Structures are given as structure tokens and as C-alpha cells.
Amino acid sequence: MAEAATAAKDDDFDALFDEAIKNADTTTPDPVPQQAADEAGAEDDAAKKAADEAAAKAAAEEAAKANEGKAPEEIAAAKKAEEDAAAKAAAEEAATKANEGKTPEQIAADEAAAKKVADDAAAKAAADEAAAKAAAAAPAPKPDPAPPAETAEEKAEREKREAEHKAALADYEFTPDEQKALESFKKDFPTEHVAIEAMLKRMDRVITQRVYNGVNAVLQRVHQDFTPVVQGYTQDAEARHFATIKAAHADYDAALPKVNEWVAKQPKYLQAAMKDVLEQGSAQEVIDLFDRFKKDAGVAPAAPAAPAAPAKPATPPPDDSALTPVSAKRAAPAPSGGGPAKDDFDGAFDDATKKK
Fold first, then answer.
1. Other beta carbons less than 10 A from residue 99's beta carbon
2. Using an 8 Å Cβ cutoff, are 299 and 292 in contact?
3. Least C-beta-crowded within 10 Å: which of 3, 34, 274, 343?
4. 99/142 Cα distance (integer angstroms)
5. Are 332 and 344 in contact (CB under 8 A)?
6. At what angle do helices 190-248 and 252-264 cross, to 10 degrees?
7. d(CA 195, CA 201)
8. What is the CB neighbour count within 10 angstroms for residue 289?
9. What gap in Å lies between CA 108 and CA 103, rounded to an integer?
10. Of the spans 42-46, 74-78, 190-194, 300-304, which averages the highest pLDDT?
11. How far apart are CA 320 and CA 337, in angstroms?
């Protein structure tokens, strides 16, 4: 009985082992075929690399053989031609891919826009090159002539004027006698000395105020006389500016909004220059811009406007002789009781010295 149970158990173990082996065969990949595939791929890559290197070497040898006896310039030209052909082929391939799904009209519009951009860039490059050539060909500006050498007499006169001007601006310095008299006067008449100093300060302020008022009055008169002249000149220049433009383009006012829209559609590097012409350009520059707009838009140029009447000449500036000069010194009347005037410092000082 026990032997039969042991045999049955052994049979179950063998069956379980066989089943486990079968499951292992179906779930565990065989590493040998994978390793073989990796090795085969590596060999293919190595073979492809070797073939590419051999082809490149053969092409280089063939190119070197073809260039035997040629000048370096010819070799460079041939290389550039090959590069240009490759670039053209790449561009055509890219254009073909970009045009997939587009209608012929869309393709034509894209080509026209690209051509316009290229033409504008070429025109700008040509203009820049022409400007550079013109600047290079222009004669160099002549240096300013050197001032004539100063003679000894002119130098002495100039130094004299400078010394006089410096002395006029310097503070007054008392002589020793004047300084001694002032100190004696201050000691003997302290109250009068204080009063005289106060009067001198007042006189200085009064004179300064009078000079300021006189100069200010003259400046106001000049400003009143010349402001209309300046305004008239500005208005007259503006009127002449637009009259010149409208003489060439009578429809300036009606066409201006369309020109602004046209400028907004131009390439970015042209918009700034065109806007500057519209806002600050001369009359001839504005006329040329309108000509370009009408030519590009296919608009017939408008009939020239009738010439504008000549502008009224501006009021001539007033004669300088009409301006009354302002005197910086005004004499004060002498007091009825005799003695110096109130504003006469020299007289008051001499009088005080005599009383001493």
C-alpha cells in the first residue's frame, strides 16, 4: 500500500516537472538567436561604413584625377558649381514638398511674393553698393584754412582787451589811503558808517533791479516782434512743401491713406525708411514715394495741379534803431538843503571826510 502511494507520488512529480519544462520553453527566449541577430546587425553596419568610406575614397581619387593639370581657380569654380547645383536641387525638393496640397494659384502667389522679396533685397544691395562707390569716389572735404598768424601788435591789443575785461569784472580794491580813511570814518562816526553801508546795499539792489527790468523789457519787445516772423516763415515753408507735392500729385489727400496701407505691406527693412519719408521727408522724396506706389499699384498718375500762388513774404524784422537803449545810470536830484544827493556815494564820502 505504501509502495503504491510512493509510486503515485513519483509519477505526479515527473508530470509536474515535465509541465514546468514545457512552460519554461514557451516563456524564456533563446538568447542564441538574439545574439546572432545583434552580431549580424553590427557586421552590416561595419560593412556599410566600409562601403561608404571606399566610395568616398574612390570619389576623392576620381576628383583628384579629374583636376590634374587644372588651375586652382578652375578647381574652385567647379566645386562651387557642384555646390550650387546641390543647393538648387535641395531647394527644388524643399519647394516641391512645401507646395504639396496647394493650388496652382497659391503656388504662383507664393512665388511672386518670394520674387518680390528677392528683388527688393537685390535693389537695396545695389543701392547700398552705389552709395558706397559714390562715397568712395567723392573727393575728400578740404580742411578749413588755418587762421592767419597773429602779429605782435594784434597779440598786444588782444592781451590788453583781456586785461581790461578782467579788471572790469574784478571787485574794487581800495587804495591804502582810501582804506585808512574808511577805518577812521568808521571809528569816528560808527552810526553814520552803518547808515551809509545800508544805503549802498539799497543802491546796489536798485541798480541791479533796474538793469534787469530794462534788459527784460528789450527781450520781450524782441520776442513780440520776431515771433510772428518765425511763425510766418514756418507756415510759409509748410505751405510750399505741400504745394510742391500737390503740383505733382493732385490727389495727394485722397491717396495718402492708400499709401500708408501700401507701406504697411512692404518688407520690414523698407517700412521704416518709407514712414520717415512720409513724416519728415522733403517734397521731392514724398513725390518719388507716391510715384513708386502708383507704379506698383498700377494707378495712373493724377494730372498736375495748377501752380500755387506765390506765398506772401513774411514781415521784415523791425529796425534796430527803433529800440530805445536803456541807460544803466540815472542821476538823483541834489537835496534842497545842499550837500550830495542820496544816491551819490562818492559825494557823501567826500562830504563826510571834509566834516572830519
1. 14
2. no
3. 3
4. 59
5. yes
6. 90
7. 10
8. 20
9. 9
10. 190-194
11. 43
How many degrees, rounded to 5, is the angle at CA 193 between CA 187 and CA 195?
A: 155
Distance CA 185, CA 194 (A): 11
Extract the C-alpha cell encoding 332. 538823483
- Which residues are CB-neighbours of 304 under 8 A, at least 6 positions away? 247, 248, 250
Whole-model pTM above 0.85?
no
196: phi then psi, degrees, rounded to nearest 5:
-65, -40
Q: What is the pLDDT of residues 256-279, one digit of tens each?
A: 999 999 989 888 888 888 889 888
Q: What is the DSSP letter of 189?
A: -
Cell of 37: 541577430
Cell of 183: 577805518
Question: Measured between alpha carbons, how far is 251 from 245 in angstroms, rounded to an integer?
Answer: 10
Spatial distance between the Cα atoms of 323 and 222, rounded to a whole number of angstroms: 9
325-342 confidence digits (pLDDT tens): 444 444 444 444 455 554
